[in-house]
Specification:
single chain, 156 residues, alpha+beta, Glutaredoxin, 2 domains, elongated
Length: 156
């Protein structure tokens, strides 16, 4: 009887320890996945995000079109080889990324990605005030992009 109690006690202790280990492992795996944003791909590159709300007004759509037009005109090679990557992002759906960039309204964000993580970024809030000044708009966004490309030696 004493031996049966001892065996049962050891079995219960083993079960508890295995259960705790499984729970910790499961929680750790879930935490690691939640830190990785699906919009940030692995590698080193410059991400240009147009961060917008779910509802987009005409002005929001215009900012997106102007930014994309600049990229397609001035950064063709960088887009083609992946040194620059474009994403439009609903910041209401991707709250973690919005919090990381401190987004409060629609804007353009230029982010340096290193090893699949944001190393540095610049939020370009002035796109709203430069909307009716296309040359200044392009210079503003292009200047931010070029600063990162020049710093990393990725400018062609």
């Amino acid at each position: 009887m004493e031996r049966a109690k001892k065996t049962l006690t050891h079995a219960l202790i083993a079960f508890v320890l295995i259960s705790i280990g499984f729970a910790i492992g499961k929680h750790s795996a879930r935490s690691d996945r939640s830190l990785a944003d699906p919009l940030i791909e692995q590698g080193d590159y410059l991400a240009v995000y147009y961060m917008h709300s779910t509802f987009r007004c005409v002005t929001c759509s215009t900012i997106e079109k102007m930014t994309l037009a600049l990229l397609n005109k001035s950064y063709v090679q960088e887009l083609a080889d992946g040194r620059v990557r474009w994403r439009d992002v609903d910041f209401q759906e991707h709250e973690a990324l919005a919090q990381q960039f401190k987004i409060i309204s629609s804007c353009v964000v230029v982010a340096q990605i290193k090893n699949g993580a944001v190393a540095d970024y610049k939020r370009l809030d002035e796109v709203w005030t430069l909307l009716n000044k296309p040359a200044e708009f392009d210079k503003y966004i292009g200047g931010a992009i070029n600063a990162y490309l020049d710093r990393t030696g990725d400018r062609s």
